[in-house]
Write a structure and sequence with these properties.
This is Fibronectin type-III domain-containing protein. It is a single chain. The protein contains 1 helix and 19 strands. The protein is mostly beta strands and about 230 residues long. It has 2 domains: about 30-120, Immunoglobulin-like; about 135-225, Immunoglobulins (Immunoglobulin-like, Sandwich). A hairpin with a 4-residue loop joins strand 17 (about 200-210) and strand 18. It is flat and about 65 Å long.
Amino acid sequence: MKPIAIFLCFLALVGCGGKDSPKPPLSALLVFPQKNSECTTGIDVTGTNTSTVEFRWQTSDHTESYELRATNLNSNTTQTIVVNGSSAKLPIVKGAPYSWLVVSRNTKVSETARSETWRFYNAGVETTHAPFPAEVISPKTGSNITKDLNNEVLLDWEGADVDNDLEDYEVYFSTENPPTTLIATLTSGKSDFKVSVLANTVYYWRVVTMDREGNTATNSISEFKVR
């Protein structure tokens, strides 16, 4: 009986083994346009204020297709394209700031993977560039957070400028949308600020970034609720 039992166990293992479960895709690594740079390689689209830019990234494991998303930071409009390779071309507005990312997909699984988000300027006729709109680090918009022991919350953001000449930040913060109360003007060396808050209250905030040439950029309004 013993050899038969061993044989039956072997058959059971073989029958249950099968193929490995499909693995979710991994995040792609972005290559070009580079982070916080000016893209000067666009090809003019005749009769328009656009140029065609080739976006490139490294392929990622367990991925069948890639969705490129390029967002005009001035108009907050997003263009998308799905490809199977590691590059894609899009016509985008000249002289405008953009952010871009790549989503990795696999039809065998529901999970997707996002790359980092990079920002760049698409070259135009400008000799000086406005800063990139401030990128919110925390609190993320739509989040529910807890105030600290001093009944405060830290507003934290990141600024960048192609010309590397950031000057100041103006921080607007209020329970009204849009926030119109200027609560602080900070030098470019400081990109966070603590604010007093109340529990069970929704707050709105935004940052105006300025450079030494007098150019400005305003980010989208962020909102969060204090528990």
